[in-house]
Amino acid sequence: MTSNPIGRITDIIDPGDALGEVLFGLIMALTWTVGSRLVFEDEGLDVHELIVATIGCNVAWGIIDAVLFILGTTFYKSRRLRLLRQIKAARSETAALKMLANEFPIEEAPFSGKAADADALYRSLLTLASRADPVKVSLSKGDLSAAIAVFFLVSVTSIPAVIPFLLIDSAHLALRVSNLFLIMLLFVTGYAWATFSGGRPFYAGMTMTCLGLLLVAIAIALGG
């Protein structure tokens, strides 16, 4: 059994999806903290209001993302069930194979190769589909656990943003430290992404940092 929290989360949700949720949460928190510095530069910074708003925003979006995850999972399962029924109702083997080819285009797969290989793969899928029985679409315990993980990942990323305000008396210094901390976490997220995907960690970290800051700038410019 996996002993660390990150391992337990990636056992529930795909690592790429998990890191995507962390990235989203960091961008939301950074948008609030950077935006607050611009808004309250002349009026003064209300630390309590900023802490409540940052945590509240991420928790709200964590709930929204979790609900969207459940809806997306239900849609995906319903689509697969519909495909299975269409395959079983197909008038010929050729028609069924064409449905599979349209649903799972092999040129997008890392093992794409000769036409004979693709045909063998689709025929294997057709054999499995012909033996399967359609079942009612329902959410599993794993789906609900994944939705909870999505909520947790988006919500918890607000914590690094507010910790400096609890430890540093100067509101403006705490805000700078908070922003720096979140930017560092953008780099760490990109680094971890490359570690899971086999890319170049430092390059991915820098790319994620620049991308995150660009998205924050866009959000603030549009009043987000």
Q: How would you describe what is shown here?
A:
With 224 residues, the protein is mainly α. The chain has helices spanning 5-12, 15-39, 47-88, 93-103, 115-131, 141-156, 159-167, 171-197, 201-221. The model has no long low-confidence stretch (mean pLDDT 83).
Q: Helix and strand layout, with pairings?
A:
Elements: H1 5-12, H2 15-39, H3 47-88, H4 93-103, H5 115-131, H6 141-156, H7 159-167, H8 171-197, H9 201-221
Helix pairs in contact: 2-3, 2-6, 2-8, 2-9, 3-4, 3-6, 3-7, 4-5, 7-8, 8-9
- Average predicted local confidence, pLDDT: 83
How much of the sequence lies in strands comes to: under 5%
The tally of beta strands, per DSSP, is 0
Distance between the termini: 41 Å
Gyration radius (Cα, Å) is 23 Å
Question: How many separate helices?
Answer: 9
Computed structural class: mainly alpha
Order of helices and strands: HHHHHHHHH
Largest sheet: none
- Form type: elongated
The level of helicity is: over 70%
Low-confidence stretches: none
The multimeric state of the shown protein is single chain
In short:
By secondary structure, the protein is an all-alpha fold. It has helices spanning 5-12, 15-39, 47-88, 93-103, 115-131, 141-156, 159-167, 171-197, 201-221.
Quick tags:
mainly alpha; 224 residues; 0% strand; elongated
